[in-house]
């Protein structure tokens, strides 16, 4: 334990004992040093002026060259001659809302669209079908209309057909979904355990006749068999038929066991919201989302064919442009353009229609998957991307995606909240290449993510980098960035003449560090500072802000666990946050004061209560 009073840094060795320190040094110097371990989230503030970044300009030049070559590639992996697509890289920045866009019209489509009613050339307003990307709009509609306060409530509270069947699972859990345990949130997060579809996609009896099914090894089903769907692809199931059939189908899992993809869950969510709000689901979506965001090229029902890309040969029916999903529309029916999908993604990350805290809850995993770098959200497909460019830091970027496919169409929305950037990808082809949407995402991500990290670092250095000191001259520090490390680095930190970099790391770690390191990371917390009245013209001056950063105190001589241990870790910074306080104030909390022009004026440590002005 540390005693009260002033301690000279050189005497710390006596407190811990020379023998213990020697043993520690013997262990740590024989292993690879552990990298910096930032908390989850951005390690720099979101970049704003993308076009001024050399790294971004280089990445965009590489993307241009890549897509030019790709649009000449007719191999089975690309099929540029029959695959049209549109994509945009967008941001929440007012300066550069669209960072990059690219559109390709397949030669086969340019001629076929003359006869089938579609557009002759793709652009940002060209309409494509979304497929399951519709699900994001369905969940967004629920959150805008009703928030997430009901997400832990049973769905049976809002869907009477399920309430009547809730007790069946008590006697036969193998044969019945435990609907009383299925919550609103579990449906949005693919955790209900219910069947994927009823009567539509995947229902083989809707695709072939009985003779063909028998020839393929399936048993013949009598037309009176209650499990044989009498509706689905056509005619569509009405609500009564849907629940009558759904309640006869076995569950995949018990609720909350594992993520299991469903379309039926989103149909049920729409029924529940209609019950709560007393309006049709289409109206519930259009009134608070499509109209306020001016998504004029986004449609819940069939869009006019002259707005869309409709691949040939054949008609719009062959491309499934005309086909509707009926009451399962909330799972995958919609139409949109990349401009509108970008505006949708931008509104989510800006919290345009939701409170920021609700957005933060939405952009979190609902469950993990069997793939270590993947998770499932509401209903996001989450990818955990390790940035290889940060060689001396564990930098993980979480990407929130939602993809879809229907007929000749493929779609993807990607959000990168750490950067306030995302991209929208829409494709159309009579023979879509495998994984076409995510293949384009890979092309974009490989160039963009390292460049975005570098752009954020450049901006952080320009904004915060420099020397800070108090008027008395006995307290000072330097802020800088390093090419291979995350966050802002604190160097030469002296408080009242004491080496505070050393002292803070000792207090946080509980031993004498060999190579103390302090990195600062943004918390997202900002307070507006009202500007003083301009006496000359009587108007308020431009407002400044107070920006909070969190420090992580580390000893870079601690050994790295490479390869990773089964239970132990060399990256547990979230446990140590606010581990040392002085007069209740955290030693790892720093505040920058920024004036109305965006210039940093000073830095203050919460525990030391000392303001140091930037030189």
Automatic annotation (TrEMBL):
Origin: domain of life: Eukaryota
Keyword Signal: yes
Signal sequence extent: 1-33
Residue ranges constituting the Beta-lactamase-like ARB-00930-like C-terminal domain according to the UniProt record: 456-614
Key words of the record: Signal
Every Beta-lactamase-related domain range: 120-432
The keyword Signal appears for this protein: yes
Protein name: Beta-lactamase/transpeptidase-like protein
Source species of the chain: Neurospora intermedia
Taxonomic lineage from the root: Eukaryota, Fungi, Dikarya, Ascomycota, Pezizomycotina
């Amino acid at each position: 334990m540390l005693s009260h009073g002033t301690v000279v840094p050189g005497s710390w060795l006596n407190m811990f004992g020379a023998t213990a320190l020697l043993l520690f040094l013997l262990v740590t110097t024989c292993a690879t040093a552990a990298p910096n371990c930032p908390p989850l989230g951005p390690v720099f503030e979101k970049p704003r002026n993308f076009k001024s970044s050399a790294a971004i300009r280089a990445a965009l030049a590489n993307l241009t060259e890549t897509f030019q070559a790709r649009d000449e590639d007719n191999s089975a992996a690309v099929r540029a001659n029959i695959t049209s697509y549109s994509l945009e890289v967008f941001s929440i920045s007012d300066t550069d809302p669209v960072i990059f866009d690219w559109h390709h019209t397949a030669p086969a489509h340019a001629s076929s669209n003359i006869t089938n009613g579609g557009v002759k050339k793709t652009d940002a307003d060209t309409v494509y079908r979304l497929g399951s990307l519709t699900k994001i709009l369905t969940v967004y509609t629920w959150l805008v209309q009703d928030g997430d306060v009901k997400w832990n409530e049973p769905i049976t509270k809002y869907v009477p057909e399920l309430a009547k069947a809730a007790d069946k699972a008590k006697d036969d859990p193998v044969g019945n979904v435990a609907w009383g345990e299925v919550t609103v949130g579990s449906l949005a997060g693919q955790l209900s355990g219910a069947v994927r579809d009823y009567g539509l996609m995947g229902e083989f009896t809707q695709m072939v006749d009985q003779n063909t099914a028998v020839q393929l090894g399936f048993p013949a089903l009598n037309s009176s068999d209650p499990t044989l769907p009498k509706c689905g692809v056509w005619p569509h199931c009405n609500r009564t038929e849907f629940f009558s059939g759904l309640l006869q189908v076995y569950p995949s899992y018990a609720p909350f066991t594992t993520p299991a993809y469903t379309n039926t869950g989103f149909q049920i969510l729409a029924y529940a919201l209609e019950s709560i709000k007393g309006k049709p689901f289409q109206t519930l979506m259009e009134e608070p989302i499509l109209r306020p965001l001016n998504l004029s090229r986004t449609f819940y029902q069939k869009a006019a064919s002259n707005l869309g890309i409709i691949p040939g040969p054949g008609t719009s029916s062959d491309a499934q442009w005309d086909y509707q999903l009926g009451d399962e529309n909330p799972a995958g029916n919609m139409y949109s353009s990349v401009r509108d999908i970008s505006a949708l993604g931008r509104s989510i990350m800006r919290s345009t229609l939701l409170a920021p805290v609700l957005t933060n809850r939405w952009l979190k995993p609902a469950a993990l998957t069997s793939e270590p770098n993947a998770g499932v959200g509401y209903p996001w497909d989450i990818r955990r991307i390790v940035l290889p460019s940060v060689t001396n830091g564990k930098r993980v970027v979480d990407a929130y995606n939602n993809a879809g496919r229907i007929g000749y169409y493929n779609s993807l929305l990607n959000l990168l909240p750490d950067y306030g950037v995302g991209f929208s990808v829409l494709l159309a082809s009579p023979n879509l290449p495998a994984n076409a949407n995510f293949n384009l995402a890979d092309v974009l991500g490989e160039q963009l993510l390292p460049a975005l990290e570098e752009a954020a670092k450049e901006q952080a250095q320009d904004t915060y980098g420099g020397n800070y000191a108090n008027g008395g001259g006995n307290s000072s520090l330097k802020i800088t960035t390093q090419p291979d490390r995350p966050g802002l680095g604190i160097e030469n930190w002296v408080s009242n003449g004491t080496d505070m970099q050393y002292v803070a790391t000792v207090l946080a770690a509980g031993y004498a560090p060999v190579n103390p390191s302090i990195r600062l990371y943004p918390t997202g917390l900002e307070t507006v500072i009202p500007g003083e009245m301009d006496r000359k013209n009587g108007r308020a001056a431009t407002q400044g802000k107070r920006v909070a950063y969190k420090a992580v105190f580390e000893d870079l001589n601690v050994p790295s666990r490479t390869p990773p241990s089964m239970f132990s870790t060399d990256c547990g910074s979230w446990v140590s946050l606010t581990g040392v306080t002085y007069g209740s104030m955290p030693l790892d909390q720093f505040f920058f004061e920024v004036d109305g022009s965006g210039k940093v004026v000073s830095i203050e440590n919460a525990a030391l209560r000392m303001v140091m002005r930037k030189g």
